[in-house]
Design a protein that fits this description.
Layout: E1 3-7, H1 14-22, E2 42-48, H2 55-72, E3 78-79, E4 82-90, H3 95-107, E5 112-115, H4 119-132, E6 135-138, E7 153-155, H5 160-168, E8 178-184, H6 187-199, E9 206-212, H7 220-229, E10 233-237, H8 243-252, H9 255-258, E11 260-264, E12 282-285, H10 295-303, H11 313-330, H12 334-341, E13 345-347, E14 352-355, E15 362-363, E16 366-374, E17 377-386
Parallel strand pairs: 2-4, 2-5, 5-6, 6-7, 8-9, 8-10, 10-11, 11-12
Antiparallel strand pairs: 1-4, 3-4, 12-16, 13-14, 14-15, 16-17
Helix pairs in contact: 2-10, 2-11, 3-4, 5-6, 11-12
């Protein structure tokens, strides 16, 4: 595990400054406070996956964070006259490494920790934040348990409930509908099945499941079970290298033509996995390039290498906006930082974002999407945008 200490002062193009100055009110994070006379830097620790299975997610997160910091500070890298000093640590997706890194940073005087690409990491770092009374802003980690974890824990990304509510939107009124969850055996499949039962089943649908061993390579028997169930909605939760064969089988066996099939749209690099089935699937989406046309999205595209936004760029961008807001209003007082973020509404890459005061859920737009194209050349387009209110999870009880 390595920690890189860097002091960053970003320079923005004139167009970026113009965009920031033109942004409207509603608690906009680019309204940089004048700050006090204390020129000591603000230490921010970023603990995320630079390596390991979620490294691609972590790369998008840090790119988004740096673009968001540039946007929120008008290219200065400062809040008032205080520089934002970043210390980056690689947790490799390992909760133990993340906890060690967070404790090390806190021991060096860091009062703001952000990152957590992995849900398992976020759930271990959150208690550390509460024990040490430091601000923790979780990133792409989607587990619902981060919401309401404690008063010091916030999130800059979406949570699983918002994914499943978006899936539900494809069938409208769920009352009396039949829903089948197709997933692999194991914790990932269990979590998705439980979420569908809670969200869509809770709205009146009958939810059943077809589960496959994680080692399965022949999917025709499972396709037959799905067709026999005649669902109004098939929710597919799949991970791993067998995804391509699984989608090909569902397509060949007529499942995709027989019902509405919904799954999550992952990062762009995964899109070719769907093959010819891609255009026949309905996707729920946290974000993809072109899903929004906000000032923040334009600013992010101008800073992201390659100029193409992906799934987790908005999470990093929003985290930086939240950091700047916390420091603007709270200085070095973590209790004031927490108060400043609770109930705050701001314009992020996705559009209007609001931090719910009661449990720190991040209310935000979610998307229905379709893929077009073939081979390695796919394009995603938004079919419908759900508002933050439409995709809001139920209020969770704050645990600490």
């Amino acid at each position: 595990m390595t920690i890189r200490h860097t002091r960053r002062v970003f320079l923005s193009a004139a167009t970026m400054v113009a965009a920031a100055l033109a942004a409207t009110a509603c608690g906009s994070p680019q309204d940089t406070a004048s700050g006090g006379g204390d020129a000591a830097p603000v230490k921010v620790g970023l603990v995320y996956s630079q390596s390991g299975p979620l490294a691609s997610y972590g790369k998008q997160y840090i790119e988004g964070f740096k673009a968001g910091l540039d946007f929120a500070t008008k290219g200065t890298g400062k809040v008032g006259d205080r520089k934002i000093e970043l210390s980056e640590a690689d947790d490799a997706g390992d909760p133990a490494k993340a906890v060690s890194a967070a404790k090390d940073l806190i021991g060096k005087g860091t009062k703001i920790i952000a990152g957590s690409t992995s849900s398992g990491v976020a759930l271990q770092v959150a208690p550390i934040a509460a024990q040490n009374k430091v601000l923790f802003i979780s990133g792409p980690a989607a587990t619902d348990a981060v919401t309401g974890a404690n008063k010091y824990t916030f999130r800059s990304g979406r949570q699983s409930w918002q994914d499943v509510v978006t899936a539900k939107s494809f069938i409208g009124d769920a009352a009396g509908k039949k829903v089948v969850v197709f997933a692999q055996d194991g914790a990932f499949g269990d979590a998705n099945e439980a979420a569908v039962k809670a969200v869509i089943g809770g709205a009146g649908a009958t939810v059943s499941s077809v589960r496959a061993p994680a080692s399965a390579t022949e999917f025709t028997p499972f396709a037959s079970q799905i067709k026999a169930a005649k669902p109004d909605l098939l929710f597919v939760a799949w991970a791993g290298t067998t995804a391509g064969a699984m989608w090909q089988t569902l397509d060949q066996q007529g499942v995709l033509a027989a019902t509405t099939v919904v799954t999550g749209l992952d990062i762009r690099a995964s899109w070719p996995t769907f093959g010819a089935a891609g255009s026949k699937i309905s996707f729920l989406s946290h974000y993809f390039d072109g899903a929004s046309d906000t000032e923040a999205a334009k600013a992010a595209k101008a800073k992201i290498p390659g100029g193409t936004l992906d799934l987790f760029h908005p999470d990093g961008f929003a985290a930086a906006q939240m950091v700047v807001r916390a420091v603007q209003e709270g200085g070095d007082d973590v209790e004031k930082m927490v108060t400043a973020l609770e109930g705050w509404e701001f314009e992020g890459v996705k559009g209007t974002m609001k931090i719910r005061a009661e449990d720190h859920a991040l209310l935000q737009p979610m998307y229905q999407a379709k893929l077009t194209g073939s081979g390695t050349a796919f394009t995603a387009t938004a079919q419908k945008t759900l508002t933050g209110a439409e995709s809001a999870p139920p209020v969770a009880q704050m645990k600490g």
